Structure formats: C-alpha cells, structure tokens
Amino acid sequence: MQVASEDSWIKKLWPVQRFEHKKVVPLLFLKFLASLVYATLTCMKDSLIVTANHSGAEVIPVLKGWIVFPLSLLCAIAYSKLSNHYKRSTLFYGIITFFLVIVAVYGFFLYPNADLLSPHASADRLTSIIGAKYTHWVSVYRNWIHALFFVTAELWAQVVIFILYWGFANHICQVKEAKRTYTLFIAAGDLATIIAGPLVLYYVGRFTGGDFARTLQTLISYILAAGGLILVTYWWMNKYVLSDKRYYDPAVTKQSLNAKTKLTLRKSIKHIFSSKYLLCIAVLVIGCALTINMVEVTWKAHLKALYPTTADYLAFTSKATTIVGVAALLTVLLLGGSFLRRFGWHFSAQIAPITIGATGAVFFVLSYFRDSLGPLASFFGTTPLMILVLVGAFQSITSKVVKYSFFDSTKEMAYIPLDPESKVKGKAAIDMVGSRLGKSSSSWLQVGLMSVMGTGSVLLITPYLIPIVLGMSLYWSYSARYLSKELSAKEEALADTPSSQEEETPAPA
Description:
The protein is an all-alpha fold. The protein has one domain (20-503): Growth Hormone, Chain: A (Up-down Bundle), CATH 1.20.1250. It is 83% helix and 0% strand. It is built from 20 helices and no strands. It has helices at 2-13, 21-50, 59-82, 88-110, 114-117, 120-130, 135-142, 144-172, 175-206, 212-241, 250-258, 265-274, 276-306, 310-343, 345-368, 374-379, 384-413, 420-453, 462-496, 498-503. Helix 9 runs antiparallel to helix 14, helix 9 (175-206) runs antiparallel to helix 17 and helix 14 runs antiparallel to helix 15 (345-368). The longest helix is centred in the last third of the chain and has 35 residues, at 462-496. The two termini are 26 Å apart. It is found in: Membrane.
C-alpha cells in the first residue's frame, strides 16, 4: 500500500511518461533559463529606473504606456513580417541574440558611462519650463540609459517567453500532453525565480559600499551565460528531439515548425476581432496585465519612499522575488496540475481574476486610508508606510503566484486547439500587443488621472483605481467562463478526428 501511495504522489508531481522525457526535460530547461533571465532583469530594471536621479515609481506608467507599448507594436509588426520570410528557428536565434547584445552593451558600456551620457543639464531646463508636476516625463529623457534597460527587460517577457518559448511548446505539444506538462513548465519558471532572488541579493551584499557597476556587470554575465544556453538547448531540440519518430512524424513536425505564415499583423488583429474565442483570450491577457500593473505601480511608489537607494530597493525586491518563486513552485506542483486534472480548466482559470481583483482592492483601500493606520502601526511597533509596503508586497506576491501557477498554463492551453495561423499570428498579436495593451492602458489611466488632478504623485489617485481594477477583474472572469465552454467543445471535436486519435496514442518506451 505504501509503494502504491508513493507511486501515486510521484505521478502527481511528475505526470510524464518515460518516452516523453527527451522532449519534456529540454522544454523544462528552456523555460528555466528564459525565466531566470527575466527574473534577474526584473529585479534590476525597477530598482535602476525608480531610484535614478529625479525619478520615482511615477516614471513606470510613462515607460510602459508611451514607450514599451509602441515598441511592442513595432516588434509584433516586425515578427509578423519576418515570419513570412524566415523559418521560426532562424527568428528564434536572431531575436535571442539581439536581446543579449543590448543587455551586454548596457552593462559594460552605457551604465559605467551613465553620468557622461545622461542629459542632466537639458533635463533641468526642460523641467523648469514645463513644471515639476511633469517630472516623471522628463525623467525618462534624463535617464534614457536606464529606460533602455527597462524596456529591454519588459520586451524579453513578451517576445522571448510568450512568443518564442510558448509558441514553440504549443507547436510540439498536444492538449492531452499540456494538461500533464504545462504546469511543470510553469514550475521550472518558478524555480528560476527562486534562484534569481538570492543571486541578486548575494551580489548586492557582496559589493555593498563599492561600485554598483560590479554588481550589475556580474549579474549581466549570468544573464549572457543563460542566454547562450538557451540557444544551445533550442538547437539540440531541433536536431535530436524533433526528428524522433517516437513523438511525431519528423517531416510533418519540421514542416509545421519551420513553415512560413501568411497573415499580416493587421489581418491577425482583424482575425482576432472576428473570433469571439480569440477575443476572449485577449481579454484574459489584457485583464491580467492591467490589474497587476495598476496595483504594482502604487506599491512601488510606497516602496521608493521606504527604500530610496538603489541597493536597498534592489535588496527588498530580490527578497520578494525569492518568495514569489518558492510560493509559486509549491503552488504549481501541489495544486496547479492537480486542480487542472481534478476540477478542470474553468476552475483554474477563475482563480487569478478573483484573487488579483480582491487583493488589489484591499491594498488600494488601505493606501487611501493611510493616515488611519497609525494605531495599528503602533500596535505592531512599526509605521503606516511599512504596513503598506508589506501589504503591497503580499498583494504583488500573491498576484504573481496565481498568475504563474494558474493563469499562464490555462491561457496557453487555450491556444492549442487552434489552427496553425491562429497559433502563430493570433498568439503573437494577443501576447505581444494584448499584454502590452493591458499594461499600457493602466499606465494611460494613471498618467491621465494624474494630469487631470494636477499632481505628479500616483498615490493621490488611489480611490479612482479601485472600480477600474474590480470592473476589469469581473470582465476577465466572464471571458474565462466563455472560453471554458468553447475549449471543451474544440477539444472534443479534435479528439473525434482520426489524425488526433492517432497522435494521442502514446508511443512505446
């Protein structure tokens, strides 16, 4: 009985058949590496731009709404056009290399010469002309070097993780496999997040009191090494895994993976609006990005007030990143796959909007009534600012845990039954443009409200953000409900086709 029980637990944690190891393990490693790069970049990007000269958390909405979003559109257009002329493998190698070059230039040339290359004099003149309430706009110009790094880190998630990695996984995995393996891929990303936090914290502490450039360049060296391993692993899979007849017909698979698609980005977006199914996936992506980003900017404004220096700010965020990784890893291993198999797609898809919406509203309410937190802060021997930072950290951690553990896997599964064009161009338009549109919409709303109220502080617009977060969470939840019905119908239709039945038959070990 004990052996059977142990086998049962092993299958729950590792529901992968032996013959699938050759495909699943490299995919896990790819996800680990891509997430390790992103987690490390994320720890650094906010710390560098928020704590820069004459900067603050208010600069984040400007960057995400007015720079990252247009660049995301350009990236989507470029990817759409390039995919009509080049194989997906060629695009994979080229895009990864391009990102790594930018990161290397920033760490080893731009950052060490930031004071020389930053236009402080003209930025000061510009501030005196347009007024202090627009400091967050001038700050992007003043600190363009750190802004470049911030944008690169933001686009890594959109382009490398969502488009390149998940696009690759969706092409070589079936729905039946995804239910067993996608939570494992998410867990690999969580493990990377666990490692990234202590890694950043270690080098921040090691070079304390010295030149911060040493910390930055050491961390960037790890990023470049991880990027190199991504290229090598992808090459190995194309050469040795995709030609393995135990998984699929090599000729068909190679043709599918390297096929050049025909839809332009404009037609892809038009295709999305003509399909309620794709439109609902877009609502999921936009809703998740908008709600998380809107709450996070306010939290980071409190965090900057508590930790104004780069090293202290980075140390706190790296600790939070580690907690996210540990909590998300435990959640996805113990609950993510189990919930998908036991309660189904719909139950798992509803966890994120309910959790993020509720915790975000609570944080905004506490932020608005900050002056009333004095007695509570005195009881715990701390300050109202510390309480808000900790509550905001809890909200941020919880949001990312449910996103990584439940949202990402269910969202990616929704793409699998689609036709090849929808998988490539529809996914590119939704994940690259839709996700950025969600973040940018929250940024536009925040910047717009600050302009209307004549303030340069995001903290003064808190009460107006509560109904936005709650409303978006409800619409997100409704779209997930519709998708659940359609996904079940598509999966049943796919299972009834002869080709699908042949593909789902496991090959002998």
